[in-house]
């Protein structure tokens, strides 16, 4: 195809469709479906699908190793639309490719993944074609994208997963994993720091199975990219260690194919292809930011169709044979590959039964029987150990039996205790390693861990809790996508001590608890940590955040207190009194032993108190009302919550101050000092807890 | 000085101190003070101060234009320690330079900013020497650093501010602003995406007053940087458009000075100096990650002092004359410059009285009289307008009278409505522009806006609320630093509609309200928006987040309802009933009109309800108990809060469910659909509000 010239008015497209080639028909079908869907929804982004249709067409029809009848084939190539706003490009491709839907139960539903009717319902309630592509919602969507840079980051995780899985499961004659990851990204992705972090890591790891195609259209929402962005992106990627290729015209499918062949032949580094395109190509708004995020308008849609040589009056028009030819181009390549793979896996099962059985579990998101058998029970210990330390022990106990639990830290593993002992580092020279060095790149780590989870690894990422701020976007996306990622956040309070307020989380616990679908667990001692890890691993379709202390916590004597298994219900009665309690003391994490001590003090003063451990509000809320009321009897109004964090959210459990609710929490940022000084300063002492408990009783009476 | 070789054991330093040069004495004083302070605190980071002491010494003694007696001189060069963990380097420099303390009242306290006694109190409660440098806490600290990349980002804002201030206030013969910004950064800074975003912007803007000195020590916490980071950082900065220089040995002060002279002579781009250093230089732990984040140990401290030719038994030792010589080197250069500047400003006041008066206000963080006189009062209007639109009108009304209100968006200005109409863009070719194009770089924008605020600009940054996730770290730091930055977040709920769950904030309001010291305001109509902007601008020592709708909101008839000035108190009674209310309806933002409608419905049903507008919880909590109880009478237990966001935090005001508390909020992520469909789906209708209000009354009774 030819030039990208962008005259002021309707673009004539000389010769287009004169030969009626399947290529041109398919590409313009993608373009017009995208225009029409946005126009009908009166909402959406037409310009990028129109510009990148030739790129999408080339990848899918000539390179992607994919069987539309088996979108869950583990060894399929991945196609990631990091420019998620261009969702109509992806929906058009899925539709034309004839991808068959796989239901939530993992079985085929018998429907098209995206029908033409679905495309006509673009951006409508419950449709298969929401504004941005949603993983689990639409078959063929490999990851949820929209927040810029997210797809780029995920793709690095997918490429890592392929390398790791290949290193573990491939055997001579059995290339179980051997696939590539293609990414379409844009100027927005390139400006975001997360893509820079992920790209630097990908270059370091020499992920030659990864190809980013960068749509350089010189347009941003505020106008030309020269307003804010004129760096040499290609040179930057060279600095990261990528192979960098350039294509002058996004319509030149021959050049695109040549570049993609170079990618396929490159074995020592990832590939970055800069493609110059014209946003809204062929429309009166071509080359303008006005083609980005709003419908073209009825008149412009007609003018554009005319320029394409397309029937102006037809909407959602797929010319005869276009879908069939496009699908055939994919099936011809992909189906034999998948069929061979399936046959090969039958032989693999015979020759490598243990690995095959392991892989079956992995692909079903299940765990081996007795996977948690080595998790220790920690003996009572007044001195105890930091929950980051007990977490390290528990992690090291469970990884032996679940080889695909892999992860690492944003350069804090010695502090977050997430290293797998005896395991190698994951490096370009050793893709079998299980310890990941993400570098000081929290946002990138989050996106990469999500990408790994998307390929069924039980991936984890760790840093200090305060640096959650750097990686909230991927943590949120792990919840939206219902991924079984585990986020390990240590140094969880003013317990950080001397590093001071920039390193002391205050609001972070509340901000995690506020994310729908994220199980935030702050265990109170080593045995609660053991159950917290069990809770995390047992759910492959829900992310869990473990919130752990820097400082030592006593290991409670469980012969005296209730079992730590209560963690599984989110909240439980740790210690009680005879008869109805006069006051309920609640705590999590490092404050659990503190309220247990206050409970003893109150007992000595003749006050009947109950201690409730509340490590996971999320899980507690999932319990039925009867259980919740048994733990927190509605009639007991004097309630004190103690947590070395902000009070936000505790009021749900303690009630209003006037009815007897109290919190001992942080209302300011912390300070740099040894922890004991801070505990005194901010009132985290058992005497103060007992005092406030009596105040609560007075207010409630 | 000489080589960086790193033998295994104690490093001999041949010839060191043989000549007893002031340079060597000063540099080793910085090193030993840093070692001793960390050792005494038994906490901290000795290695980087030891490695970078020669760099700090060179900048301060030979380049920094600074008067230690006037640390608040507006035209001083800025020194930013982005490697905030190396705080002892900065404290040592401040001490040796003899910087005089300026108190919270802006007056000199008569004390040293950092005395030797303060250094001995490193990392202790209330000391002047907290673990990481804290702005406002210690004179001489230009910005709070520690979270990696933050200082880098701030520095771009400082350099921008200098350029903007120069463009506005410099006149022929009056170089009011003409200073540079020096930054020390490390591998961690370079791995973080925020520094990449900020560096790309700085290159684009050709900020030749900005110099980053990158400490490349090849060490990260997990081990060598080759574990995760082997990109060509210098080449990357070339791609950003920076001038890149290399220094092989951090001890080579001659080479450092030569590079800094090149920086001073470069007028068309920022400068990036790669300095190869040895962490913990001269100590037995030199070149190892063990020198990074823990005390060296008593024996190693002694061995290191021996290697330096330092008295082994002396701690916190400043040899005679060292401080005096170091201070003199700064004063000799800086004092005459400041004296000239002060004299020049006297003439400036005479020749440019209006600009001088403006500058006086700016520097005192005050606003002109009648600064808000043009802010419109919006007439009642059932159709109304989006609060992002009314915000745009209010902003445009106030910027006329406060020229130093400047800001922009992360490539969303057409949507966030933050453009200043008729003003130019801030560009390399026009540093007088007031509209900033930050690019799709939310994190970078946040750090840059903070840097601008640190130079007294009333800076604002805007994006969609959901992308707060990308920039939480700088928003938090604006609160820690008590900066008057304004964060404008639009598209604040499922009101986003078709863009779907990735673009619909759910938890974000709660996560902002949880940040200590951040005033989060979600105004309910155009007149509340007007007051919200007043609230924001009136506080120069507190950040404000404005949370605004995409969709139109009715402008309430204030002849019927209470005045929108109630915003200033955070919460107020918008509409009431005769006698004691049976139920209180609370809302913010787009739900305010909804509960006002439900109030009417309930009135028709004979139910006495009160409507409370709660745009700022932060401000409401600052009111005395009497006011709070007048708005929310403790005896009224039936309370319903309505907000198109998660419920987190509302329980504080509504109380527990069993006592009559109810929320109509979001418990899941949203969905892609037109807003009206979503409002139905999730219960945001006045009928549902009325229904839930009656349920609350039943539960409370």
From TrEMBL, chains A, B:
Q: Where is this site: Important for catalytic activity?
A: 45, 292
Which stretches of sequence are listed as region Disordered?
1-22, 127-146
Q: What class of enzyme is it?
A: transferase
Keyword annotations: Calcium, Magnesium, Metal-binding, Thiamine pyrophosphate, Transferase
Cofactor annotation: Mg(2+); thiamine diphosphate; Ca(2+); Co(2+)
Tell me the active site. Answer: 442 (proton donor)
Q: Recall the GO molecular function terms of this protein's record.
A: metal ion binding; transketolase activity
Q: Does the keyword Protease apply?
A: no
What are the EC numbers? 2.2.1.1
**Residue numbers binding thiamine diphosphate:** 85, 146-148, 188, 217, 292, 467
Gene Ontology cellular component list = cytosol
Reactions that this protein is recorded to catalyse: D-sedoheptulose 7-phosphate + D-glyceraldehyde 3-phosphate = aldehydo-D-ribose 5-phosphate + D-xylulose 5-phosphate
What residues bind Mg(2+), as annotated? 187, 217, 219
One of this protein's GO BP terms? pentose-phosphate shunt, non-oxidative branch
Q: Which Pfam families match?
A: Transket_pyr, Transketolase_C_1, Transketolase_N
What does the entry comment about cofactor binding? Binds 1 Mg(2+) ion per subunit. Can also utilize other divalent metal cations, such as Ca(2+), Mn(2+) and Co(2+). Binds 1 thiamine pyrophosphate per subunit. During the reaction, the substrate forms a covalent intermediate with the cofactor.
Q: Which NCBIfam families match?
A: tktlase_bact (TIGR00232)
Q: How does it assemble?
A: Homodimer.
Q: What is this protein called?
A: Transketolase
UniProt organism field: Sphingomonas rubra
């Amino acid at each position: 195809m030819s030039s990208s010239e962008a005259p002021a008015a309707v673009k004539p497209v000389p010769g287009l469709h004169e030969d009626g080639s399947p290529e041109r028909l398919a590409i313009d079908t993608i373009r017009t479906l995208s225009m029409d869907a946005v126009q009908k929804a009166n909402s959406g982004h037409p310009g990028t699908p129109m510009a990148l249709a030739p790129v999408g067409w080339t990848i899918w029809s000539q390179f992607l190793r994919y069987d539309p009848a088996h979108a869950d084939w583990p060894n399929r190539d991945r196609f990631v639309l990091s420019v998620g706003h261009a969702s109509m490009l992806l929906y058009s491709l899925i539709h034309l490719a004839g991808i068959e839907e796989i239901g939530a139960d993992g079985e085929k539903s018998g429907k098209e993944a995206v029908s033409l009717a679905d495309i006509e319902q673009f951006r409508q309630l419950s449709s298969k074609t929401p504004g941005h592509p949603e993983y689990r919602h639409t078959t063929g969507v490999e990851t949820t994208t929209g927040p810029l840079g997210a797809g780029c980051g995920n793709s690095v995780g997918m490429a890592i997963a392929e390398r790791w899985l290949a290193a573990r499961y491939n055997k001579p004659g059995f290339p179980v994993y051997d696939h590539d990851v293609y990414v379409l990204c844009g100027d927005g992705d390139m400006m975001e720091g997360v893509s820079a972090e992920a790209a630097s890591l990908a270059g370091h790891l020499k992920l030659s199975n990864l190809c980013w195609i960068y749509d350089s259209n010189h347009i941003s929402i505020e106008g030309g990219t020269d307003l804010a962005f004129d760096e040499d992106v290609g040179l930057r990627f060279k600095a990261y260690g990528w192979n960098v290729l350039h294509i002058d015209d996004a319509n030149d499918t021959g050049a695109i194919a040549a570049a993609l062949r170079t990618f396929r032949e490159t074995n020592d580094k990832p590939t970055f292809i800069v493609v110059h395109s014209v946003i809204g190509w062929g429309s009166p708004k071509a080359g303008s930011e006005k083609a980005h995020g709003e419908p073209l308008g009825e008149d412009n849609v007609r003018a554009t169709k005319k320029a394409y040589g397309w029937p102006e009056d037809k909407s959602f028009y797929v010319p005869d044979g276009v879908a069939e030819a496009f699908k055939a181009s994919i099936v011809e390549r992909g189906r034999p590959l998948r069929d061979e793979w399936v046959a090969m896996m039958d032989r693999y099962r015979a020759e490598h039964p243990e690995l095959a059985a392991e892989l079956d579990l992995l692909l079903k998101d299940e765990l081996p029987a007795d996977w948690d058998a080595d998790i220790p029970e920690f003996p009572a210990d007044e001195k105890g150990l930091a929950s980051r330390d007990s977490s390290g022990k528990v992690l090291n106990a469970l990884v032996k039996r679940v080889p695909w639990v892999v992860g690492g830290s944003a350069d804090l593993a010695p502090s977050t205790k997430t290293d797998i002992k005896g395991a190698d580092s994951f490096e370009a020279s050793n893709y079998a390693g299980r310890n990941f060095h993400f570098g000081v790149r929290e946002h990138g780590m989050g996106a990469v861990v999500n990408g790994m989870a998307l390929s069924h690894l039980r991936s984890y990422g760790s840093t200090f809790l305060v640096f959650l701020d750097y990686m909230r976007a991927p943590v949120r996306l792990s919840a939206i996508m219902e991924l079984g990622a585990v986020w390990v956040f240590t140094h969880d309070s003013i317990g950080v001590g001397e590093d001071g307020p920039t390193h002391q989380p205050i609001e972070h616990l509340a901000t995690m608890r506020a994310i729908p679908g994220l199980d935030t667990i702050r265990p109170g001692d080593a045995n609660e940590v053991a159950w917290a890890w069990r809770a995390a691993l047992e759910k492959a379709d829900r992310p869990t955040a473990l919130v752990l202390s820097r400082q030592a916590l006593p290991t409670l004597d469980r012969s005296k207190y209730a079992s730590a298994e209560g963690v599984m219900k989110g909240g439980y009665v740790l210690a009680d009194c005879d008869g109805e309690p006069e006051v309920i003391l609640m705590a999590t994490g490092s404050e659990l032993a503190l309220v247990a001590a206050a409970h003893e003090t109150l007992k000595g003063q003749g006050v009947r108190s109950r201690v409730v451990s509340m490590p996971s509000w999320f899980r507690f809320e999932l319990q039925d009302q009867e259980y919740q009321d048994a733990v927190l009897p509605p009639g007991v109004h004097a309630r004190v919550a103690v947590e070395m964090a902000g009070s936000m959210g505790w009021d749900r459990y303690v009630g209003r101050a006037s009815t007897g609710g109290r919190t001992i929490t942080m209302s300011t940022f912390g300070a740099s000092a040894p922890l004991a000084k801070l505990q005194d300063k901010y009132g985290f002492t058992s005497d103060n807890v007992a005092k406030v408990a009596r105040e609560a009783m007075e207010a409630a009476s």
